[in-house]
Amino acid sequence: MTETTMAQALNRALRDALAADPDVLVYGEDVGPLGGVFRVTDGLAAEFGAERCFDSPLAEAGIVGTAVGMAMHGGRPVVEMQFDSFAYPAFEQLVSHVAKMRNRTQGAVELPMVVRIPYGGGIGGVEHHSDSSEAYYAHTPGLRVVTPGNPADGYSMLREAIDCPDPVVFLEPKRRYWDRADLELPVRTESMDRAVVRSSGTDVTLIAYGPMVATALETAEAAREEGIDVEVVDLRSLSPFDDATVAESVRRTGRAVVVHEAPMFGGYGAEVAARVTEQCFHYLEAPVLRVGGLDIPYPPPKLEEYYLPSVDRILDAMDRLQWEADWFPEAPPRPRADAVPLPCNDSAGASAGGSDRSRSEVSAWAPSRP
Amino acid sequence: MQTNEGPAAGAGLPALDDLAPDLSCAFYRDMLTARLLDTEAIALQRQGVFPAYVSLRGQEAAQVGSAAALDRERDFVFPTYREMAVALTLGVDMVGYLASHRALWHGGLYDPMASRFGAVNAVVGGPVPHAVGWAMGERLAGRRGCAISYFGDGASSEGDVHEAMNLAGVFHVPVVFFCQNNQWALSVPNERQIAGGSVAARAAGYGMPGTAVDGNDAAAVYRATREALERARSGGGPTLIEAVTYRVEPHSTSDDTTRYRKAAEERAWRERDPITRLRAAMRAAGHAGDGFFERAEREARATAEQVRDGVSAAPEPAGEDLFGYVYREPTGELARQRRVWQEEVLP
Ligand SMILES: Cc1ncc(C[n+]2csc(CCOP(=O)(O)OP(=O)(O)O)c2C)c(N)n1
Ligand SMILES: [Mg+2]
What we know:
- Chain A is α/β, with parallel strands linked by helices.
- In chain A, 32% of the residues lie in helices and 18% in strands.
- Chain A contains 13 helices and 14 strands.
- In chain A, α2 (44-48) links the parallel β2 (24-28) and β3.
- Chain B is globular and about 65 Å long.
C-alpha cells in the first residue's frame, strides 16, 4: 500500500486510460507542460505526446465544443475546465449540445466524453475559484454528473467515466485533491452511479457528496461522542441519483440531513430532501434538513469559514431532528391521533432518545420496506 | 518547452521628441511607484498577508502609458486582475485596490464608479463586452467619454472577446480594446494561443483599426492610446491596440514557470526593463537628471510603503457583510439566514 492523494489517483486514472485506449485524449487550459494548475495532468504530455495531451487556447466553449466533434469522430476526449467558474463560458455547449445530442438524434450520435471540473471552496481561492456548480449540471437531463469523495473513487470513477458511453461531468472536489489514502492502484470501487454507505449508524443518515464527505465523516465521529450514531452516505453520483441506497438508509435511521457547500436555495440538497421525503415519509421522525452554503455569492477567503458547512453546523442541524417531543416551541407538531407505531424499526426506537412521536402507518402506496 | 522572441517590444530607447518633459516625468513616477508597490505586494504574499498576488512587473509602460492618455473625468476603465499600474495612474485608492489581493473583498474596496475604474475581475475575457456596453451607453447619452478594455493575449481567444469586438464594430462605439500581449497566458505561449500571430491583425475583421505597439515603451503606448481615444471621441469608432510586452514574473505567486519556460527568456526580458529604458531616454532627451530620479525614487518608495502598511492594517470585513450586498435590501430569506448565522456561526 502507498499513500496516494486524490490528485495523484486522478492523474493515474488518466494515464491508465490513455495507455489502455488509443481513442482517449486529454486537453484543456495549461494541462500540457504545466500539468494542470492542480497537476492532475502532470506528466501526461511527456508520456503520451502532444497529440494525446495538449494545451488549448483559452476558450472554454471551444474546448467543450470541439470535444463534441472529437467524440463524434470516434475519440474519447477528456477535457478540463480549469476551475468551476471557468466552465460557465462552456455552459451553452454543455446544456444545448453535449446533453441533448443522443436524444435529439434518437441515439444515432453518441458522445463518450468527460468534462472534468475542479469545484467547491475551502482552499482560500480568489474570486471565481470556489463555486459549487453541481446543481446546474444535475438539472440538465442527458448529463451524468458524478463526484468522488476520496482517492480510490477518484481513480475508479474517472476510469468508469471515460469508459461511459454517455457524457459525464466529472466534478473534482478541489479541497480534497491533497487528501491521502493508503491505496494500491489500479483500484475498482463500486459502480460510479451507486451511492455508498461510508460509515454505518442507526440514528440519522447524513447524506453528502464530493468535498463534504470527509466533513460528514468527521461529524459522525463528533456525534458519536455525543451519543448519536450517524450513518454517512456518500452519493458519488448526483445524476442519476441512487434512490435505493439512500432510501434504505433513511428508512432504517428515520432521520436525514443533507449537506453541501453550494447555496441552499434551489440547490442539489432540495432534490435529495424531496426524494427522501417522497420515499421515506412514513419512516421519518423529523423533516429532512439541509446544511449548505449561505444564499450569497461565494465569499472572499477571509470570510470563507463563515460560509462553509462545518462539523458544528451539521451537529446543530442534527440537534434539530426532533429528538425530544418539545423540540420546536413555535409550532409543535401534532401527532396523528390514529398513528400507530411501526412494527420493526427497533434501531431508531432504541436510539432516538425518548422520542414519543410514532411513525404514521405505511399506506398502500408507500414504497415497500427494505 | 517553448521560447518567445519578443517581436516588437524591447530594443532601443523610447522616442520622447513630441512629449513634454512633465509627461515623461509623470510616466516615470507612476511606473516606478507601481514597480515598488508590486515588489511590496509580492513580499506581502511571501509573508502570508496576501493569499496570492499577480505581478505586473515588466508591464508598467503598457499600463501607465495607456492610462495616462485617458481623460479621468470622462473615460472608464474595464480592467482584468493585473492592471495595478493603471489603477495607480488613475488615482484609484490603492489600499482599496490591494484589498482584493488581501482577500478582504473580491472586487477590491474602492469605488469603481467614482474611480472610473471597474472592479478587478478574474474571469478572463468576461469584462470585455462590458466596455462595449458602456461605450454604447455613453454614445446614446450624447457624451464624449470613451471606454477602455484591458485584456491579455490569452483572453483574445475567448468567445466573449470576439463578440465584443464585433459588436463594437457594428455599433461603431467609442471603445479602445487594449491587449497587453505579455507573451504568456499562464503556461501557454503566444504561438499556441494566437492563430495568425497577431491580435492587432484581427481588428481588420471587425472593421476597426488595429495597431501593434512596443508595450515596453511608455511613450509609444501613450501615443497609440491617445490616437485611438481621439478617434473614438470624435465618432471614429473602436480601435484595437496590441501592446507587446512580457510577464517577467510567474503568472501568479502560485505558479511555477520552470515547468514551461526558460529562465534565460525571463532574464532577457528583464534586461529590456521599461523603467530602465524610460530613464535612459529621459536623460538622453534632457527631460530629467539625477535630482529628479532621486526624488522620484524617494517619493515612490514612500508611497509604496504607505500603501503596503495601509493594506496590511486594513480591518477585516465583518462577517455580517456577507449578507449586506447581495441585493439592495436583503431579502427576507437572507435576513433570516443572517439571524441564524449570528446565533449559530458567529463566534
Ligand atoms: C474564463 C477563464 N478561463 C480560465 C481562467 C484561468 N486563468 C486565469 S488567468 C489565465 C491566463 C490569462 O492569460 P492572459 O489573458 O494572457 O492574461 P495575463 O495573465 O497574461 O495577464 C487563465 C487561464 C480564467 N481566469 N477565466
Ligand atoms: Mg498574457
